[in-house]
Amino acid sequence: MGSKFKNFSLIGLGMVAGVAASMQFSAMAQKNAASPLPVEELRQLADVFGLIKSDYVEPVDDSKLLSEAISGMVGSLDPHSAYLDKKAFKELKEGTQGKFVGLGIEVGMEDGYVKIISPIEDSPAYRAGLKPGDLITRLDSVPVKGLTLDDAVKKMRGEPNTKITLTIARKNEDKPIVVTITRELIKQQSVKAKMVEPGYAWLRISQFQEPTVEDMAKKIQTLYAQDPSIKGLVLDLRNDPGGVLPGAVGVAAAFLPKDVPVVSTNGQLPDSKATFYAKREFYSGRVSGDPLAKLPEAVKNVPMVVLVNTGSASASEIVAGALQDYKRATIIGTQSFGKGSVQTIRQISADTAVKLTTARYYTPNGRSIQAKGIVPDFNVEETADGDGFNSLRTRESDLQKHLSNDKEAESTRPKVDELEEEQRLIALAKKSKPLEYGSKDDYQLAQALNHLKGLPVKVTEPKDVHENKEGGDKSEKAEKADKADKSDKKK
């Protein structure tokens, strides 16, 4: 393969269709391994390779054997390290540009099936009525069980205007749902914004992409053109799976003091020990000039709430963590996903690569988000009746072989009775409906606005929140302080 590799450093949630990745494009020589190669083990690998070639029931292509060997070796490390073949590598690069050909769904695995985490807004999957929690059991006529997530995603990707038939198992349906969807070029609009009430703005980032910082700056300028005296701003990062690291740094920099640290990384390699600051060179990317230069000065001090949930991961956790550490914003919602690791893309040929976990990342105060996530200041579930499908999401700490948190001990969610859980899912599916973020029915947004207005926030007793070092739950402390403050105001 040669000794020279191309490097792409990234932070992103690797469990989505259209992988969200943060990539810094730079070329460097891959350093030689410090330790000698295990000759005996490599000889065994060669022996097995030869045995398969000579004794297997039918001929096997050399490149297939070697690709699968690399895939198995890298995939055994952690949930986010993977071998990227030609198609997967191409899709990774496309995803950072905010476009890919496919169905437009974020997916994970559950019980051997592909589970829909959420359809991307305005995508073919969204228009076809696919819902969070749906299980894909067949892709065309191929059963999903037995496929890896990457294999399933590859089958859902394809050329524009080609069709694929999905068989769906939905909790409140007696029979499978069969739907045929036409693949399209998915162009994600990662930033949305509007005035939700006079004086109060809503800014949503659905994924961090290369154009995100510039698009966000334009949206903020438009908001302030509509109302130069904005009283409060809600930054909505719910179900944001991550994305390009410069995008996360730029979004945080828009609201933080100039030049402060936003995030740091640490790993074995010298290049993995780095700090990223709220400076133009860390977020401008390929854009000439500073995309944040023309923002109104008021945006640095406007009262803020950041909304997060279990679907908020990686780059979105970087932003929420930085704003929380500097006490620049109040975090409202439910505990985030907990992906605090950095992956680096090592290009091993012209069109293939290895995605390898090379570092953990840390908030400005040195907190590790890995397998923990961001704990909100106010724990508020998706609806007044509960956390909806969000409560069913897999988190980083649920994934097998996940990287540990090197700063504090992890806590696990309690196991539930399977029959009880099944009944709960059926009941939930029957009464649930897709939530439109930013709408009048958005319960968490309503609580965020209450907080900005100084009104009581209807908090929920957290079910899976770690205790902080002082002993006691941070969100509970925030709730008590808020209640005391409201009590003083009444007096």
TrEMBL record:
Is Protease tagged as a keyword?
A: yes
Enumerate the Gene Ontology biological process terms.
proteolysis; signal transduction
The residue ranges flagged as biased composition, category Basic and acidic residues, are 399-417, 460-491
Give one GO molecular function term. Answer: serine-type peptidase activity
Q: Name one GO cellular component term.
A: outer membrane-bounded periplasmic space
Q: Give the span(s) annotated as Disordered.
A: 399-418, 453-491
Keyword line: Hydrolase, Protease, Serine protease
* Highest rank taxon of the organism: Bacteria
Q: Where is the PDZ domain?
A: 89-157
Name the Pfam families for this protein: CtpB_N-like, PDZ_6, Peptidase_S41
Q: Which SMART domains does this one have?
A: PDZ, TSPc
Tell me the PANTHER family matching this sequence: CARBOXY-TERMINAL PROCESSING PROTEASE CTPA (PTHR32060:SF30), TAIL-SPECIFIC PROTEASE (PTHR32060)
Record family assignment: Belongs to the peptidase S41A family.
What name has this protein been given in UniProt?
A: S41 family peptidase
Q: From which source organism is this entry?
A: Undibacterium jejuense
